[in-house]
Amino acid sequence: SDVDLAEAWSLVLTVCSFLYLYVARSFFFVDIEMASIRCAASAVRGLSTRQVSSANSYQGAKRLLSDRIEPASASTLLDIGTRRIFSEEHDMLRENVRRFVQEDVVPYHEQWEKDGQVSREVWEKAGSLGFLGVNIAEEHGGVGADFLSATVVSEELSYAGATGPFFSLHSDIIMPYIAHYGSDEQRKRFVPDLTSGKKICAIAMSEPGAGSDLQGLRTTAVKQGDHYILNGSKTWISNGQIADVIVVVAKTGKDPRAAHGLSLFIVEAGMEGFERGKNLKKIGLKAQDTSELFFSDVKVPAENLLGEENKGFYYMMNELPQERLTVGITAMAACEAMFEWTREYLGDRKAFGAPLSKQQLLRHRMANMKTDIAVGRAFLDSCLERHNDRKLDGATASMAKSWASDLQNRVAYDCVQLHGGMGYMYDYKIGRAFVDARIQPIYAGTNEIMMELVSRSIFKA
User: DSSP letters of 356-407?
Assistant: First the structure.
């Protein structure tokens, strides 16, 4: 029939398109991922409902042409060159980031833990290599790469157990506020320095009496002429000790509902009335500075209002899914790293005359752990692919954050147990990873809040 003939030609065009693009990619190393998808989509457009399975044939061709395997089938979960969502260009970036982490982060991390913060030099080094502001548009002063490239940077730090440099907070959580809602003047003034690492940013939402509940915020900003008077305090602010640029959430409206009276302000280091409190002592993330911030009649120029007045809540709702996905990214990478550290330990450690890896009970615990990690990785990569295409919804991002961070804590618990007494030593990476994991289900919205958000997508009013 004419429909069958059209379908056949569509499939031929699909396969030919992918063969051409595969050869081009192999020999010229050009990034043609989205081009291939658009080309194949055009080839299958217009098929009837009866041939709906064939309408997605380009996805099948894409998978057939890909020689990338998933981590569960690789030699280790940390192998470069795995995962179908990535390309050869991402692999080259990953090699560079991994080298940077091993040479410029790992050797200094122990000292940073003693200092309670990382050096500014490592920020500038990361910026000089293009590892900050990765997903921020080039025209705004960023690197201009896709979100998967930003993911590579976050994952490599987690693979090394390096929780001190909070690059993901800086680049993937805070910088988007300025890039998406800032004026041209604000972008020119802040984004290039944030991308280079010359300036470091933080976001100040939480207060002593208000964490996940934004309606409890008490920090206020009152308009007076060409500036705002900012008063209040914030706590648990990551990068708080070293930040030069702080996005502060404050009440500007009289409506008690958070959705109608919050605004965002860019507060700069050195503004009169702005003071930092002590570097808070946490049970984990010891190289990552976390602070109290105090604002006493701080005169914030009106041009430092980020976006429109009283629109801050809506801006945060737009950006929080990426923040929650970012937690999921680091959580899954940490799971994979802890698994590999434990695999190595069980292979080296001997008991009763044989390596622990010969004990069936321990082997089965590792098998169960790997299965859980493989399932989590598949879900996270699906979320990453959708987010890279700007299609990830907030409820799914909440699921990713909750599932991955809970899994991270289960894996950390099991890996410490498999290390025995050594796992309880802070000198061992697994011991540090155990306490570092505990914050993941708490910040960026507690996992209890995540489940409430997911439930709302199930039972819609």
Answer: GGG-HHHHHHHHHHHHHHHHHHHHHHHHHHHHHTT---HHHHHHHHHHHHHH
CA distance 170 to 133: 8
Q: Which residues pair with 291 in a beta bridge?
A: 237, 279
Q: What is the pTM of this model?
A: 0.85
d(CA 38, CA 58): 10
Map residue 256 onto helix, strand or coil: coil
Q: pLDDT by residue (tens digit) across 240-271?
A: 999 999 999 999 988 766 678 999 999 999 99
**Residue 138 is encoded by which pair of tokens?**
């080039």
Q: What is the pLDDT of residues 392-413, one digit of tens each?
A: 999 999 999 999 999 999 999 9
Whole-angstrom distance, CA of residue 211 vs CA of residue 33: 40
How many residues are given for the chain? 461
Give the angle 430-322-85 at the CA atoms, nearest 5°.
Answer: 75
Query: What is the C-alpha to C-alpha distance for residues 199 and 246, in angstroms, rounded to an integer?
Result: 11
Q: Please state, in angstroms and as integers, the Cα–Cα distance from residue 237 to each residue in 210, 266, 318, following that order.
A: 13, 15, 20
Two structure tokens written together for 426 = 């802070």
β-bridge partners, 300: 228
Token pair of 229, please?
Answer: 């008077």
What tokens appear for 286 in the block?
Answer: 């010891």
Q: By C-alpha distance, which of 450, 335, 330, 315 is closest to 396?
A: 450
**Alpha-carbon torsion (326, 158, 92, 102), positive or negative:** positive
SS3 (DSSP) at 320: helix
Asked if 323 is an active-site residue, the reply is yes
Share of the chain above pLDDT 90, in %: 81
The single-letter code of the amino acid at 226 is: D
> Catalytic one among 292, 309, 319, 323?
323
Residues 6+ apart with CB under 8 A from 103: none
Task: Measure the CA–CA gap between 165 and 122, rounded to whole angstroms.
Answer: 8
Helix (H) or strand (E) holding 234: strand 227-238
User: Residue for token digits 């000198």?
Assistant: 427
CA distances 59 to 18, 83, 252, 380, 392, Å, are 10, 15, 49, 19, 19
